[in-house]
Here is the input.
Amino acid sequence: MKILLLANYTTDAQESMTRFVRMLETGFTQLGHQVRVIRPQPWIGQLKVSATGLGKWLGYIDKFILFPATLQQAVSWADIVHICDHSNAIYTKYLQNTPHLVTCHDLLAIRSALGEISENPTKWTGQKLQQMILHGINQAQHVVCVSEQTQNDLLRLSSLKPSQVSVIYMSLNYPYSPMTATETKQRLETLGISQHLPFLLHIGGNHWYKNRLGVLSIFYELTQKKEHDHLSLVMAGQAWTPAMHEFVQQYNLRQKVIELVAIDNPDLQALYSSATALLFPSLAEGFGWPIIEAQACGCPVITSEKAPMTEVGRDTVLYIDPNSSQEAANKISSHLPTIAKLKPLGLLNVDRFRFNKLLENYIQLYQKLISNKTL
Here is the structure.
């Protein structure tokens, strides 16, 4: 089978989407399929590389004006075209005579543009872009959602029929597993963390829904309890925002909170393997990769009692209210002494998200779409 994967604009630097495309490319190639990856290139955008301001508008020239011609040339080679991120659904209008599908990771930006999410107000230009994306989704032959929650949002907001939408869960994009104590010690020391330091781990970017100020607030409330004042918090991912720096300073957390930026997979594996628990109180997600990454390393998970976190974690994680720091801290405090009992449950849960299962589901869908074209 000839599979054309449509990936994101190079300078958008969307790490999770880059990992998703790389995962599919590697998996399908190993199964013997021919795979090509195509993405808009920063021809005009290289004049000012930025995701905001002038750089954003120059990038739109690359995406909306220059790239379609490249895409149309590449399509003739493919048996199936897979738009790997729904934010590129604007290109479905060029694929109407070609078997194709879109993977929808979440509807957060579209919902924000529609005024459904007050925490993330959207400017007029952003609203118009999301309208274009939703229109493109409506023109897709098929849309795969990464969770039932995302599917429910999509069916509610789009004009697609239920038969045009399905769920294929995400899988691990790296072979996470419990790391040996020797390697963990070496990597933690390199990161400046003592092997004997008990810590909660958070991983994420600075998007509003990651609730990183909420993470700090929950941790602060937890450290106010004498039995947990020895705990530290490791926050891996993007650099702190000014508001996060201010919070850490205001509540004298500088000696208890460790900031780690741009952590690679092996170091993250070491952190998961040694953390007391993952603290992941997101306000919203499309799927929630860190939940299964942590569980694959034997790390207990504390996350929000909200879909899709409840869908991914089921009864193998500790659920909290992400909007109530004190209540969340109280619940975490009462469960920390026995939280290690979640480790074997988490390892079993990860089996639901096997990489081979994801590949098999996509291949079956590809074949179905190609067959429908030939009928």
